[in-house]
Write a structure and sequence with these properties.
heterodimer, A: about 200 residues, mainly alpha, 11 helices, B: about 210 residues, alpha+beta, 4 strands, about 10% strand
Chain lengths: ~200, ~210
């Protein structure tokens, strides 16, 4: 299956040419043979994607950095165990997900609720109309009310444009679980968002 | 949060509705895309749902990007280089390597290889003795010879490896060998106790004495 283009392809800082699934697989195979230059290219493609993804599961910036570093080091060490059964992106995101979830359960500290002020304004009146920036901050804040498993499904779908079957592989769960998580996540997002935003959902 | 799975089979409308987030993200395959499109043409509820999905997708993406760039790749790469430099260069398996040599079997093969190395060393008595092909007059005289061999788990970080060696007042003499074994030197009188402590560590696969010739 051809890898879809997501916002991550278009807008993340990138120092290498756009990479398709076949190109990424070639880079990983070369990395498995010890080619550091090929691995650096893969590293620079995946670092921003993983930083965003892991940042949606664990909240401490230091922990995000640690998990991303650990993930990419594991990719280097285990490159020769990649068997081509899934896409390179699925394989790498799956490693990141396991490490992020482990870090979340072991160490992550809850952060202050960034949506509190916005929700407090959720009263009838002219101030109800939220600016776009506030609305987007409210969305990210509402995401923080979800479990890490639900945040992963929402983020991989909306930001990375990854299909539910691949998400199921990344999260190591059945596809119906992915759909169910999305259903519950949308319902919880709706409950957490201020009035106007909740109407979308 | 609930882990209850909602039954999505049996109701075509609900099944299509469940696919809309991925339809909006352009992440369905061709057959599913066509199926959703057909359903949308006749379902006002799903059309409204799709409009909401598209707006949510757009806002989610914008929100992520507004949250700031996912930077730090250069610093991360430098940290990787330091970590990778502490490891020996990989020797890849040839493309035609049989399945039993593929990962999964490798840790076992690697531990067995290390054991074989120790046994051969014990018999020959000089497996780990340095045998330089060229010795310059200015070369320093070696002050310590290895008297034990240790194999660490491949994922052991350099920091832990160092701590283990320091805890046994051991010094690294040689390695990693082809079997990822390290030759170490430790106080002869304490060697047995040090190696016993090393074996108790989860990071240590093997710790055996080796007597120099």
């Amino acid at each position: 299956m051809e890898r879809r283009r997501s916002v991550a392809d278009e807008e993340e800082p990138r120092t290498v040419a756009p990479a398709g699934a076949a190109h990424e697989e070639g880079l990983l195979r070369r990395a498995a043979r010890g080619e550091l230059r090929a691995f650096e290219e893969l590293y620079r493609i995946y670092h921003p994607r993983l930083a965003r993804f892991v940042g949606r599961i664990v909240r401490s910036p230091e922990l995000v950095e640690e998990v991303v570093d650990d993930t990419l080091l594991a990719v280097w060490r285990r490159a020769d165990s990649y068997n081509g059964a899934s896409q390179v992106s699925t394989w790498i995101f799956a490693i990141a997900y396991r490490k992020a979830l482990k870090a979340f359960r072991r160490l992550d500290e809850p952060m202050e609720d960034r949506t509190e002020d916005i929700r407090a304004d959720d009263q009838p009146g002219p101030e109800q109309a939220l600016g776009r920036v506030q609305a987007r901050a409210a969305l990210l804040g509402a995401m923080e009310h979800l479990s890490p498993e639900h945040r992963a499904v929402v983020h991989l779908t909306y930001f990375h444009g990854i299909g539910y079957r691949e998400i199921a592989e990344i999260l190591a769960c059945p596809v119906d679980t992915v759909k169910t998580r999305m259903f519950h996540a949308r319902r919880r997002l709706k409950a957490a968002l201020p009035g106007e935003l909740a109407e979308w959902l | 949060m609930t882990g209850r799975i909602i039954p999505l089979h049996g109701d075509r409308h609900r099944q299509i509705q469940a696919l809309l987030p991925w339809y909006a993200a352009g992440a369905l395959d061709a057959a599913e895309t066509a199926e959703v499109r057909d359903h949308l043409a006749a379902c006002a509820e799903c059309q409204a749902e799709l409009a909401a999905e598209r707006r949510l997708t757009e806002e989610m993406r914008a929100a992520e990007l507004e949250a700031g760039p996912a930077g730090g790749v250069d610093a991360s790469w430098r940290r990787f280089r330091q970590a990778a430099a502490a490891e020996r260069p990989r020797r890849p398996l040839p493309a035609f390597a049989p399945g039993w040599l593929r990962p999964g079997w490798l840790p076992l093969a690697f531990a067995a290889q290390a054991c074989a190395l120790v046994v051969v060393g014990a018999f020959l008595g000089r497996t780990f003795a340095p045998a330089p092909a060229y010795h310059a007059l200015s070369a320093p005289v070696p002050v310590r010879q290895g008297n034990a061999v240790v194999v660490f788990r491949p994922e052991t970080p350099e920091r832990t490896l160092r701590q283990i060696l320091v805890s046994g007042r051991a010094r690294l003499v040689d390695g990693p060998t082809d079997a990822n074994a390290y030759v170490i030197a430790t106080d002869e009188a304490e060697r047995a106790a040090v190696l016993a402590r090393f074996r108790a560590r989860p990071e240590v696969v093997l710790a055996e004495p080796v007597d120099p010739p």
